[in-house]
Amino acid sequence: MERREQQARCIKNSQQRWDAFVMLAQAGVIVPNYTRLGFGVAEAPAWVNAKLQASLDRYLVHKQVRGEEENRATEADDREILAIVGANRPLFVDQEDLSRETLLALQPMHEAWAGVKLVPEMAYGLRIYRDGAQLLMHYDKVETHVISSILHVGHDNASEPWPIVIEGLDGQTHEVVLKEGQMLFYESSKCLHGRPRPFKGSYYSSIFVHYRPVDYRLTKEEVEYAVALDFVETNLCNRSSGLPELELRSTGIREPICPPTHWCALGVDSTTDSEIAAEMTSSARCVGGTLVSWLIKEWGHNCWSPTDSNRRTVIAKADAVSQCAIAVYQNEECGHAFEFDNATGFCGCGSRGTANEGCGEQRAPGRIRSSSHTLVLHIAPQGCGRGATGAAEL
After folding, report:
1. What is the pLDDT of residue 360?
2. What's the rounded Cα separation, in Å, for the pair 116 and 114?
3. What is the pLDDT at residue 389?
4. Which pTM value belongs to this model?
5. Contact 205, 153 (CB under 8 A)
6. Are 123 and 210 spatial neighbours (Cβ–Cβ below 8 Å)?
7. What is the mean pLDDT of the chain?
8. In angstroms, what CA-CA distances link 19 with 23, 64, 178, 205, 338?
9. Tens of pLDDT, residues 227-250
10. Is residue 206 a contact partner of residue 128, using CB atoms and an 8 Å limit?
11. DSSP reduced 3-state for 166
């Protein structure tokens, strides 16, 4: 929690900083824990899973016959839907009676796992994620989502495993891959969780059930009262800590500097052409004692915003990506991501404080260039300068 607090203190946007401190108060101070680790895996009762799979199969057949758009539904009451990103929005199977039956049927298993008597609150599902979907890391509702589970109902045979990422009460980041018919118990308002790895497949369906202990009465207002009063003090941010920047998007959080998951505990995918990769990984530069390096975010694309104010040309014709990286780092109007075109030398960035500062906006049609690559800056304030190895002093 100390690491996350330091990240929260460095958030520039005051509303996002407040929201981050509310999350910290919820998970780290207010909500009690009921288990040792905060999550566990079990097999769902066969009859429950059979009913849910039959419901999913009926929906998939109906969708094929009548068309996808007629079968699209929304989850207006589920805040988690706001943390789902990707061009293909999730679909929803409206099965209110079966979802309620599932909620009640699984209650004894949740009580045995948590060691407390529970009140059934709500069930969502079936939700059907589609290709490219990501679920940002988040906490669930403090009032009702205390002891919960995700029951995986089905996925297409060609899809890749899609892990649930959860921060356990042991302080470690865990990845859990569920088989069809398995359920993940988790303390959902206490443990940060999500699916930040992009889903690769046609569909992936689950149902979500939530309970609260019978004597549990916490509210969002109580959580807000517990927020540290010094959250407004921007001078408490330690930017020399080397921690990745934290960004809030609706109810989800991410670390933009670590693509494609945007969650640094999962590592960074910098796979690209080998010659370009050598330039990216070996050309860190030392600027006034600060090591500036960069990682490839996307190859063969750019993130040049269609909105004039969201983009900035830094150098019209740079000689190398290293020159571009240093110029972007020194430009206070640039965000942490930049674009370099090795064919033309163009160097540009997304403007700080806009939707494009991390090159995350939807690309404008016709602006994709095969010779360009989008990169993210990584700043490390140590191991750089006179006597350091692997970095040239500028």
Report:
1. 63
2. 6
3. 39
4. 0.68
5. yes
6. yes
7. 82
8. 6, 41, 31, 30, 27
9. 878 777 777 787 666 678 888 988
10. no
11. strand
